[in-house]
């Protein structure tokens, strides 16, 4: 897609150059859609003439201005599996187009953007635009915690299935549309691929920098407020695409380290409070060493039982006695650390305050806690799977890329891609083979029939042996 407003001068050279590049280098079928944003010059006539002359070109007229409105309208109505757009000035080198859409076709990413701020990008533009662009992206990083590097480079692509869910949540209809779409996608956990681009500034650009910057800052405030208040229904788009291993519920596979750490910290915090209460109680009728030993013993038994169930997911009574015995060994190590700390405190002060004793015990327990987690994970509750359980992926016979009979030479396909739908440069796709995932938990949309397509989009090359006759390679 090429959004335009009063571009009667640049439109035809842009489309001709883009079409020639795609015909020569692009291995899949494509469509170029000119989205006219209520132009008042002869841009509509130029669009219609290009549509009549070139089979792959479509002209689309909107009666209201706004690049975001044009993107939403055209992308929402497209039937292509991959959707992309670029600015009419062709500031971005066209050689970046195939790398832009390749990760979407291969299934690796949900969106892709060109970046003028990547280390390997080669950019020619004035100091004022460079300063504004970098300042704007710093604002996004500081206010919205954005991690993508370039929000407003006019060179982006998205899978159609992602766009169908994401675009209805994007409110802006102007230049902030790109930023809002990327922020929502990132917050929802979608994968954004960045492509370093070669970019040359267009000195005749019609973009009003001050007005655009003001509108963008208003958009940043609106989106930031919506994210802070939780009014955006991002749960609609959180991980609904592709095969996410985190969605699998596979028997006998233990919880990951991150979840174990969270569970251990929660149990450890509660155990520490329990230990301090016990110590304070026992200290009323015994010395510090005896009170510490009794408090540690009782809290260690409770801690081992809680970690066994909540942190490491061990159910049933099998091995419970052995686990408690090993837990007592770990308790002995903790006892040695805390008792040694109390002994050192007694040596330093003949009559330490109770608050000082508690502070020393808390510090010693922190060190003992780290060691306790490592021993629990590696020794008390190790991963002793006798067999590896894998969610098997058994595709049917592979679908080959069909070449016309007149050209039987093989053509190397791009990495294959999930069944998305829709691009400005729209690849045509064949039916994907079905896959079965044994012992796999399917998403809600797939649970009804327990089926899903292959995670790869099978596209059909339309020019399997096309090369540039001027290319000496």
TrEMBL record:
Pathway: Protein modification; protein glycosylation. Its EC number is 2.4.1.117. Residues 446-455 have a biased composition (Basic and acidic residues). InterPro entries: DPG_synthase, Glyco_trans_2-like, GtrA_DPMS_TM, Nucleotide-diphossugar_trans. It catalyses: a di-trans,poly-cis-dolichyl phosphate + UDP-alpha-D-glucose = a di-trans,poly-cis-dolichyl beta-D-glucosyl phosphate + UDP. Residues 2-164 form the Glycosyltransferase 2-like domain. CDD domains: DPG_synthase. Keywords: Endoplasmic reticulum, Glycosyltransferase, Membrane, Signal-anchor, Transferase, Transmembrane, Transmembrane helix. It is found in: Endoplasmic reticulum membrane; Membrane. Residues 422-442 have a biased composition (Polar residues). Belongs to the glycosyltransferase 2 family. PANTHER family: DOLICHYL-PHOSPHATE BETA-GLUCOSYLTRANSFERASE, GLYCOSYL TRANSFERASE. This is dolichyl-phosphate beta-glucosyltransferase. It comes from Streptomyces plumbiresistens.
């Amino acid at each position: 897609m090429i959004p335009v407003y009063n571009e009667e001068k640049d439109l035809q050279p842009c489309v001709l150059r883009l079409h020639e590049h795609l015909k020569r280098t692009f291995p899949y079928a494509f469509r170029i859609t000119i989205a006219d944003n209520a132009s008042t010059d002869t841009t509509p006539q130029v669009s219609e003439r290009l549509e009549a002359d070139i089979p792959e070109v479509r002209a689309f007229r909107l009666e209201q201005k706004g690049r975001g409105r044009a993107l939403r309208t055209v992308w929402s109505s497209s039937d292509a599996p991959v959707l992309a757009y670029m600015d009419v000035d062709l500031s971005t080198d066209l050689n970046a187009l195939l790398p832009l859409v390749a990760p979407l076709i291969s299934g690796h990413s949900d969106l892709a953007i060109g970046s003028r701020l990547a280390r390997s990008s080669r950019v020619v533009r004035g100091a004022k635009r460079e300063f504004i662009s970098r300042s704007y992206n710093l604002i996004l990083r500081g206010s919205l915690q954005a991690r993508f590097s370039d929000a407003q480079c006019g060179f982006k692509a998205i899978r159609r299935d992602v766009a169908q869910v994401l675009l209805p949540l994007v409110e802006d209809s102007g230049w902030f549309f790109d930023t809002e779409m990327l922020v929502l996608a990132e917050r929802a956990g979608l994968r954004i691929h960045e492509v370093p681009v070669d970019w040359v500034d267009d000195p005749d650009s019609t973009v009003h920098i001050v007005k655009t910057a003001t509108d963008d800052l208003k958009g940043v405030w609106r989106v930031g407020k919506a994210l802070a208040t939780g009014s955006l229904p991002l749960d609609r788009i959180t991980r609904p695409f592709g095969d996410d291993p985190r969605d699998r519920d596979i028997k006998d596979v233990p919880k990951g380290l991150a979840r174990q750490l969270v569970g251990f910290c929660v149990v450890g915090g509660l155990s520490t409070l329990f230990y301090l209460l016990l110590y304070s109680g026992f200290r009323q009728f015994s010395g510090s060493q005896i009170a510490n030993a009794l408090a540690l013993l009782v809290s260690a038994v409770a801690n081992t039982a809680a970690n066994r169930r909540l942190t490491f997911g061990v159910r049933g009574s099998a091995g419970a006695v052995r686990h408690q015995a090993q837990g007592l060994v770990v308790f002995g190590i903790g006892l040695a650390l805390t008792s040694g700390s109390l002994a050192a405190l007694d040596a330093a002060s003949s009559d330490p305050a109770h608050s000082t004793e508690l502070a020393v015990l808390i510090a010693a327990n922190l060190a003992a806690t780290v060691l306790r987690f490592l021993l629990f994970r590696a020794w008390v509750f190790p991963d002793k799977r006798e067999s590896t359980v894998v969610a098997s992926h058994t595709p049917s016979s592979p679908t080959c890329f069909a070449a016309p009979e007149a050209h039987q030479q093989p053509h190397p396909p791009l990495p294959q891609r999930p069944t998305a739908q829709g691009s400005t440069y729209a690849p045509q796709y064949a039916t994907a083979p079905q896959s079965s995932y044994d012992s796999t938990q399917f998403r809600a949309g797939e649970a009804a029939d327990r089926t899903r397509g292959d995670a790869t989009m099978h596209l059909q090359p339309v020019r399997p042996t096309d090369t540039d006759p001027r290319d000496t390679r």
